[in-house]
Amino acid sequence: MGEFDLIARYFKRPARRAALGIGDDCALLQPAPGTQLAISCDMLVQGRHFFADVNPHSLGHKALAVNLSDLAACGAKPLAFTLALALPEANEPWLAAFANGLFELADAHDCELIGGDTTAGPLNICITVFGEVPVVNGQSLALLRSGARAGDDLYVSGTLGDARLALNVQLGKLSVPAPVLLAARARLERPTPRVALGLALRGLASAAIDLSDGLMGDLGHILECSQVGATVQVDQLVQCIGSYPGPGPAENQVGIDFSMAQWRTLALAGGDDYELLFAASPHHRAAVALAAQTSQTPVHRIGQIDASPGLRLLDAQGQLLPNQYASFDHFA
Ligand code: ADP
Ligand code: MG
After folding, report:
1. Numbers of helices and strands, H then E, in the chain
2. Best mutation site among 117, 125, 128, 130 for ligand 1, i.e. most ligand atoms within 8 A of its Cβ?
3. For residue 13, what are the CA distances in angstroms to 4, 8, 10, 117?
């Protein structure tokens, strides 16, 4: 199978929204009047972002999911994407599964593949997504990292730490019961981009970012871009841990004997969560709750934005925790 047969068989579909899709030198995309294009690009590299034996259906899903997550963080509505693919060989069952995983998520978000590039080489997947953000009275409604203000509430969506838990099990660093691993692996391999929440937060959130590198690092970006500080109730955050119960009620325990420090590390320094971290004025509490409800996305309030720079971590008793958690990447 040649390069052009491969594209035609696995990636070319009739254009829907795009003025011109796959097949010419450029695709043509017409943004709706009164909107801006939001553009983001993310690359997945074998050995760094996934293992060689990863399920190709999941890989197709994740390659697009991590990109849609960036649109979500900007409050942008997905429109289209391009796919640059380096493949060691034209393995048809692999390509079919990869394309299915990719298009299932693309169709769920009405996001159209409009072009790309295909070469031989070590497996590498690079997607660029295009989304749409309204401009009202000359003002973009995009959610940025730079708008957080002292006094704002700080929220996180969904659950944290699952992907890191699954990764640590895969790396042989720890073991957990099989049902816990199953749920955690689903979060690592098939993350849910929080697109509906991002759209619902337009005009509400003062700043937002998606969590790809762990909460400590990504919150740091908001603080730096907004020139503010923050206080995080860490043990509130630990309750956001996902597929497996944290140090909560006894009936939730599934036989994971982690120390509180390990739970905190998972919640603060996990990665690959693809949840949204955002700030919003306390005046918007009811509206944020409604946005969570309409987008069917769980949202937790985990702290607040402060005028004084730096990040303060508090435990359940309000005691200051050492900020060394920031630098933890793995279980000690
Ligand atoms: P060019 O040589 O002009 O860069 P190509 O021959 O690489 O164009 O690609 C032919 C067409 O197929 C183009 O429209 C391109 O966008 C599209 N295409 C190539 N690879 C992919 C892919 N992996 N997914 C989707 N479209 C692709
Ligand atoms: Mg080309």
Report:
1. 10, 12
2. 117
3. 14, 8, 9, 15
pLDDT of residue 178: 85
Q: How many residues does the chain have?
A: 332
How far, in Å, CA of 313 to CA of 311, rounded?
Answer: 7
Question: Half-sphere exposure (CA, 13 Å, Cβ side) for 173?
Answer: 12
Instruction: Give 247-256 pLDDT, tens digit per residue.
Output: 544 444 455 6
Structural domains of the chain ordered from first start: 3-140 (3.30.1330.10), 153-321 (3.90.650.10)
Judged against a pLDDT cut of 80, whether residue 246 lies above it is answered with no
Q: How many CB atoms lie within 10 A of CB 183?
A: 17
pTM assigned to the model: 0.92
Pocket of ligand 1 contains residue 251 by CB under 6 Å: no
**Pocket perturbation via mutation, ligand 1, pick of 3, 5, 6, 7 by most ligand atoms within 8 A of CB:** 7
Residue 105, ligand 1, Cβ within 6 A: no
Ligand minimally distant from the alpha carbon of residue 22: 1
